[in-house]
Amino acid sequence: MSSIVEFPPEIITEIVLRLPIKHLLQCRCVSKPWCRMIDDPRFAKMYLSVDDNKPMSSPSSSIIVLVRRVLTGTFSDELYIAEDTDEGLVIKGTAKIDLPISTYYAQNPSNGLVILEYDSRHYICNPATGKCLLIATESRKRLLFGMGFSLSSREFKVVQVRTYFVVGANTHSSRFEVFTLGTQGRRTVGSLPYRLRCSCLYFNGSLHWIVHYDYSNMSSESFMALRSVSFDLDSEAIGEFPKPEINFTSKLEVWIMKDYKVKESWTKQYSIIRSQLGSYWVEPICLRKNGDLLLHVDQEYFVSLYCKNHKARRHEVVGLDQEPQIKIFSALPF
Fold first, then answer.
1. Is residue 146 within 8 Å of residue 39, measured between CB atoms?
2. What backbone phi and psi angles, to 5 degrees, belong to 213?
3. Do 144 and 43 belong together in one domain?
4. Domain limits at 277?
5. Would the pTM count as exceeding 0.85?
6. Nearest in space to 159 (alpha carbons), one of 182, 172, 143, 176
7. Are 16 and 66 contained in the same domain?
């Protein structure tokens, strides 16, 4: 008698729907039926609609690391998938990218996908399978992208923000265009009277950007004009997002909003002197499983910021050659 217990297909589907993306992709190798099930577009919609799998609802342990090797007059980039551990970021393997290029720019991960740009061509890529989809052909100096899952329509949407200079007004404007994966064409849904420059964050069914009116003036008064905007993927509405009352100081401050869109719920969680980090250029990557904050400093190294004592320490990358020509260009939670 066989010792293998066979579960009904609907039970298997319910179990697989709750797996993290990295384990889900491993399940594609179990059998051809499992591979067909996971590759089915209907499964993708069900997977994205399961609340337990929302990418920003829990601490992240997998990181995509873009490593740039600076050679004589040229660059060579490679994507790695790393696991966050107490010992550091442990390289687990090389991400698959089915593109004939050697250098690229990565931004805005969402639901296991990432946007890559090379030579004014923008692709949505799955680092685990290597599949890529061309979505735009224009310089990233004028384009920003965001992507995420619409909970009401159960569709995966891509938002393209196009910036341009308004002649006569001496200012910039940002136009929002939306298209749904699997469909043709895109539509303009609105605009903002300023220029977006930073990458966005997908959370709670919306995309979020921090914007600034005047990047040439980085004074304390100028930082008070900082704004946060959001784009609701369900209603496709653009709106301002409440920000905390902050001041430009020599310290790095991290604020947490405990109740979504409630300004009074902003709470200062961290405050650390920037000199402890060794640089003023700091990029938050993700919240670690132990509650600490992982930071990327100067596009060179990582720092773990302890939530209990607000102290920082280097977070090493294990399994990566420590060569002087290697630069950790960017890192994204996966």
1. no
2. -70, -45
3. no
4. 54-333
5. no
6. 176
7. no
- Provide the domain count of the chain: 2
For residue 23, give the nearest of 63, 64, 79, 62 by alpha carbon.
62
Do 185 and 292 lie in one domain? The reply is yes
pLDDT in tens, the chain (334 residues): 444 457 777 777 777 777 766 677 677 778 888 888 877 767 766 776 664 444 444 455 778 787 777 766 667 777 788 888 888 888 887 777 766 666 666 776 676 778 887 777 888 887 767 778 888 777 656 688 888 888 788 788 899 888 877 777 677 788 999 988 877 778 899 988 887 877 788 888 899 988 765 444 444 454 445 788 899 999 999 988 888 887 766 778 888 889 998 999 999 887 887 777 777 778 888 888 888 888 888 878 888 888 777 788 888 888 877 665 566 666 667 6
Confirm whether 285 is domain-assigned: yes
Sole residue written with tokens 């004009």: 225
The tokens for 274 are 């920037």
